[in-house]
Specification:
single chain, about 280 residues, alpha/beta, Rossmann fold, 8-stranded mixed β-sheet, 11 helices, about 20% strand, globular
Amino acid sequence: MSIPKTLDLPAGVAAITIETSRGPFATHAIRVPDPVAHVLLIPGWTGSKEDFTPLLPLLASVGFDATAYDQRGQFETPGADDDDYSLSGYATDAVSLARECSTEPSHLLGHSFGGLVAQAAALETTSDWRTLSLLCTGPGALGESPQRPLSQFARALGNLPLAEIHRFRENGMERLPDIGAFLERRFTSNSVASLKSMTEHLMHAPDLITGIQRLRLPVWVGRGEDDDAWPHEAQAAMAARLGVDIHIIGDAAHSPAVENPQGLADAWFPFLLAN
């Protein structure tokens, strides 16, 4: 979960709903004249489009259109209980949104759980993507840990009100009033079915890296220096399997796009501009 530093939209960033063949998606988007290419940004578990908002003006400054979105059933994108919340379903959503945003292939970045979706999307339709970037994510399931008891969280979903689960997760956290209110609204706006599905995927998602290797798609891998989700060695091993270096973003943990957007830009943009 990324914690925004401000809820104000930067100049040029618009909050818009984009209609696709898969339904409407809430987005934060920025557009420039004669863009170099389009970048699609997929957020992670309990996150949202706001996880990327500070990065959008930086992308525009070097010539990119960019779109960050709430996934199906996440925050301001609607989701019904009987929707397709498989990894393939989330991946198809990404493909449909990219096609609405650009007539040319898009650069694709997935953060955390969004990285698992991005891998599935790349495998689904390689021709829709110029590159694949994986940020603070891994080659498959995150799995259980004492710090992240996912099975306990999954059992609570549907049995306890989301507001109660949120209060438990936030116990002892000091937040500015507007940020605290936003975090509660974001969490309690999620579809329970979508949130439970994402949690199950984090526990059981398959390793797709062998398939990604076969695509010959340019790939970038990065993480915050203090990332606390997938083990650092697992992310480094994933990068090695893909034949690339892992880029470490200083002054950042699991959410570099919010914690150090300029550091992320410095590490990532050369890759985008070269492809």
